[in-house]
TrEMBL record:
Protein name stated in the entry: Nuclear transport factor 2 family protein
Origin superkingdom: Bacteria
Stretches assigned to coiled coil: none
DNA-binding keyword on record: no
Organism of derivation: Roseateles oligotrophus
Alphabetized Gene3D superfamilies for the sequence: 3.10.450.50
Signal sequence interval, chain numbering: 1-21
Alphabetically ordered keywords of this record: Signal
Span of domain DUF4440: 37-140
Classification via Pfam families: DUF4440
Amino acid sequence: MKKTLFFSLALACLSFLNAEAQPMDNPAAQQWRSDVTAAECSFAASMARRDLAAFERHLSEQALFFGGGEVLRGKAAVLSEWRAHFVAPLAPFSWAPDEVVVSPDGSLAHSTGLVRSPSGALLMRFNSVWRQESPGVWRVVIDRASPLTAAERGAEIKPAASAC
């Protein structure tokens, strides 16, 4: 009985590991990951360039942005609130992805990375959920910041060779 249970658990673990590894072996999955990384970098660049219209093109109509106490629901609400971030000549913060994970069917993706002040100080970590709304067109559906981990707060993390 114990051997059967152990074998079953081992087989389940191997199946899970194999399922996790397969999507990135798929050329389409590699392309989706590359596309989402490029979309995230373009989204961040719109802030750096102070280009609200480009920022808007990355937002899904159903976007949910968390932060500042109230959830911003929909593209119009996000733009109304975020417009203030585009007024000054210098962006109030910047970001770049350090991890992008895509669902097996290529419909959703999660990106995360560090957010920095204009001086380069670490502020927080962003987490964005992207949806492929048409072939090759990825838009942000959910955006939420999270606090830095203890390791991130304690380390002097220099801007790495960015995915952007």
